[in-house]
Amino acid sequence: MPFIFQYIKLSKPTSWASRTDLVTWQDHQVQSFLQKVLPQSPFYRKYYEHLSIEEWQSFPTINKSIMMDHFDTLNTIGIKKKEAFKLALQAEQTRNFTPMIKRTTIGLSSGTSGNRGLFLVSEKERMMWAGSILAKVLPRSIFGKHRIAFFLRANSNLYNSVAHGRITFRFFDLLTPLIQNLKELNHFQPTSLIAPPSMLRFIAEAQLAGSIQLQPEKVISVAEVLDPLDERVIRRAFGTIVHQVYQCTEGFIATTCAHGTLHINEDLLVVQKNFLDKRLRKFTPIITDFSRYTQPIIRYDLNDILTERADPCPCGSLHLAIEQIEGRQDDLLYFKGLDTDTPIPVFPDFIRRALITADEQITAYQVIQHRLGHIEIHIQSSNPDPVKLQQKIQINIDALCQSIKVESPIIAWEAYQHPPSIHKLRRIKRMYA
């Protein structure tokens, strides 16, 4: 059975003696995968025509636009984009996510980058995904009792496939009013609580207020960037490490170890690093997933900014360790340079640190840039003197700008508001091209 086989395979300690052994194994997996999948995908067959499989690491890349433009010929089972979109949108409207095409699950991304993506997962791939996710996420053996509470914008056959034997899975719809969700969550008493960090924050605040009493063994953040401010509140509420699962339309990319460090799932896919700043260890990942045949992901240039961990993780894993997911490359802010007419990109992490180190009484924030030279800062704080708080933040922003040789932006101050919703929370975002 694919589910059990995958669970057992990924639960066992890895046999690679070194990083070189792991990379060699990955190379063999990718070449074997390409030999099987290229003849089945008309798009890739033409795209990589006359190229040697042994040179796959330098193949031309694709991105979301290319994938969606060639969806009909990229997938290997002949599903049409128009038909898939129709089914996925109908599922969103009816909240019935069970219908499939050719026994294949159809999923629709949230479209935070402005371009909604489709993903296809076959029945076998669903089972293998379930085995993978349970091997990497469950706090205990699969043969124990588990109650998994999962909050997300949309349910899927993919997520429901984790319900096996003694594992109870419960989907909580983000469209359902928060009060109702909290009441049902308290009754369900999950052993594993999985949700976007913005929702985990609401649940944590209810726990701290005594409105609910949960004792999850594991708390897992998904779908959004886990901000240090949110992580602090969630950890305090549940007294445990806040783990992360890094997954998107393009693959099951990374999970945290027992120490809370994100590691790339290099036993499922390859991540090549497209460095934005090598000194700062910041890169965008180029993904080749050698476990997905229905919708092959080959040399896919993902638009996320990751920071590689500087020191080895204490867990000893050979898998690439990630210090932080910063968000999408589209959310790089741009400030006017002091010595150049060209706008200078500013990493979200720089802005994040300038804010959260300004005052320990800041409890939530959002930074939005609508045009060059201006930013909006939305602040929630227990500081009784908002003018003094703004001055502290301004000092930090000015110091940052001086250090990277850019002009300080004009700041518009706003009150922070983010009610529960199906929309992903992006704490730092740019709204202009």
Please describe what this structure looks like:
The protein is an alpha/beta fold and 433 residues long. The protein has 2 domains: 2-328, ANL, N-terminal domain (Rossmann fold), CATH 3.40.50.12780; 332-430, Alpha-Beta Plaits, CATH 3.30.70.2210. The chain has 13 helices and 20 strands. The chain has helices at residues 2-11, 19-37, 42-47, 64-69, 71-74, 81-94, 123-137, 157-160, 178-188, 197-209, 228-238, 348-356, 386-403, and strands at 105-108, 118-121, 146-152, 167-173, 192-195, 218-221, 242-248, 251-256, 262-264, 269-277, 282-289, 297-301, 304-308, 321-328, 333-335, 344-346, 362-371, 374-381, 410-415, 428-430. The strands form 4 sheets. Strands 3, 4, 5, 6, 7, 8, 9, 10, 11, 12, 13 and 14 form a 12-stranded mixed beta sheet that branches. Strands 19-18-17-20 form a 4-stranded mixed beta sheet, with helices on one face. It is globular and about 65 Å long. The termini are far apart.
